[in-house]
Amino acid sequence: MSADKNNLFSNLKYDIPAGLVVYLVALPLCLGVALASTGRSDLLFSGIIAGMIGGIVVGSISGSSLGVSGPAAGLVVIVLNALDTLGSFEAFLLAVVIAGIIQVIAGVMKAGIIGYYFPSSVIKGMLAAIGITLILKEIPHAFGYDADFMGDEAFSQKDGQNTFTELFNAVKYSSTGAIIISVFSLGLLILFDKPFMKKVQLFRFVPGALFVVISGILLNLLFSRIMPNWALSGDHLVQLPVASSASEFFSFFKTPDFSAITRVETYTIGLTLAIVASLETLLCVEATDKLDPFKRSTPTNRELVAQGIGNITSGLIGGLPITQVIVRSSANIDSGGRTKMATITHGSILLLSALFIPTFLNFIPLASLAAVLLVVGYKLSKFSLYKGMYQLGKEQFIPFIVTIIAILSTDLLKGIGIGMVVAIYFILRKNYKHSYHYVKEKHRDGDVITLILSEEVTFLNKGSISATLDNLPDNATVVIDGTKSMNIDYDVLEIIQDFKKHAAPLRNIVVETKGINGVEVVGGH
């Protein structure tokens, strides 16, 4: 934890290995999200473009030290529906550009402040849920059952299956070769996580995930020689588009169809993408800042501008829409990344590998990459997180658990929405209880009750203050003390005024006020 934690070049020994791990995580996710979003194998490269832009462009502009952006599974359904509505991928690219412009405007207008209003219990619940989702969704890939795309986060899949039926299918249609590769890969990752491995100079710089990928390739090649039935091929391997020439490579890049600028649907889809992508990004920013060992704070308005510029760029050259993504960001943190150079490194490696070694990448078994993601999922959802949240009490633990269950049974944004409702309920409940301090004293002439109002008294406190006034004993004296209050909403002043003028005289209650402007002193005697 050195003072130069923000220096981009003094931390390269940490950021380059972390960027390599993020690249290995991002590669199958970019391809998987692209295939799921477009349903077309000829558009797989759109995911790689989005990953490159998310790493290089967004990474360079963003104020986030550890956040990693790229194509997100949460936008898959929106993209699919948009392609049906607009009729072409090129018209959709124009909607992505419009979404980016809206995000830039939102950032300039300081809309990023929304990110500060997500309760901690919900953010931590999101992290735990994503960890569990990763584990459940990657087990089939570790077993060699690759029907669903890597990186899917939703409970219900577009093929009619869901998270749990997929697990049964994985066991039913498992591959011996994939299981051996994934178990060996997990063993390597656990070994590399041991303290004694860090003492070896080579293993400080070369991450375990790279050894996992190389070992997976070698094991699969060995199977093809000695046990052909165990060998993995086709959908069980990375499937990066391979260009036979420079002109074919550049044909992977697309440009928007600007004739769609006159269509209302283009703007509707652009606005939808901007809203959803911005919400996912702000949620991820909050989560990443909580995971950051240096506890740095990301400027959310700058993040929206960076995401907007990223989406404008991605849309102009044929990429999918971009958000900040917690799986890649947490992989960055777990791998020791310290600055945005890790993010930029991952985007640069995506570009260079797509240019120079696509054929080699297509030898990588998905089972090896599934093992890497299983470890990422475990680290996001450790038992210590649940224990810590439980110890904070039910007001934190219940929204935390509800968020987890909701995300696991629906998807990320719906689950967050449900978790927010529960968290807000507990916030309102606490606000209801703690809007004032109640003091009761016995005197010869009757009870004297003092209500000391809190610093901020808002319309949210109307219910509790009104109920307390209604339950005051007859013939009492009540002193409502607002001397410590910085602000008292008109709604509350109105309740106090009405009580003093109408209810108090009927019940022979004397009401005195201190430090409350605009309320007359009214007595019942």
UniProtKB/TrEMBL annotation:
<feature type="transmembrane region" description="Helical">
    <location>
        <begin position="173"/>
        <end position="192"/>
    </location>
</feature>
<feature type="transmembrane region" description="Helical">
    <location>
        <begin position="204"/>
        <end position="223"/>
    </location>
</feature>
<protein>
    <submittedName>
        <fullName>Sulfate permease, MFS superfamily</fullName>
    </submittedName>
</protein>
<feature type="domain" description="SLC26A/SulP transporter">
    <location>
        <begin position="12"/>
        <end position="402"/>
    </location>
</feature>
<dbReference type="Pfam" id="PF00916">
    <property type="entry name" value="Sulfate_transp"/>
</dbReference>
<feature type="transmembrane region" description="Helical">
    <location>
        <begin position="349"/>
        <end position="377"/>
    </location>
</feature>
<feature type="transmembrane region" description="Helical">
    <location>
        <begin position="116"/>
        <end position="136"/>
    </location>
</feature>
<dbReference type="InterPro" id="IPR001902">
    <property type="entry name" value="SLC26A/SulP_fam"/>
</dbReference>
<feature type="transmembrane region" description="Helical">
    <location>
        <begin position="43"/>
        <end position="66"/>
    </location>
</feature>
<keyword id="KW-0472">Membrane</keyword>
<keyword id="KW-1133">Transmembrane helix</keyword>
<keyword id="KW-0812">Transmembrane</keyword>
<dbReference type="InterPro" id="IPR011547">
    <property type="entry name" value="SLC26A/SulP_dom"/>
</dbReference>
<dbReference type="GO" id="GO:0016020">
    <property type="term" value="C:membrane"/>
</dbReference>
<feature type="transmembrane region" description="Helical">
    <location>
        <begin position="397"/>
        <end position="428"/>
    </location>
</feature>
<feature type="transmembrane region" description="Helical">
    <location>
        <begin position="16"/>
        <end position="36"/>
    </location>
</feature>
<dbReference type="GO" id="GO:0055085">
    <property type="term" value="P:transmembrane transport"/>
</dbReference>
<feature type="transmembrane region" description="Helical">
    <location>
        <begin position="86"/>
        <end position="109"/>
    </location>
</feature>
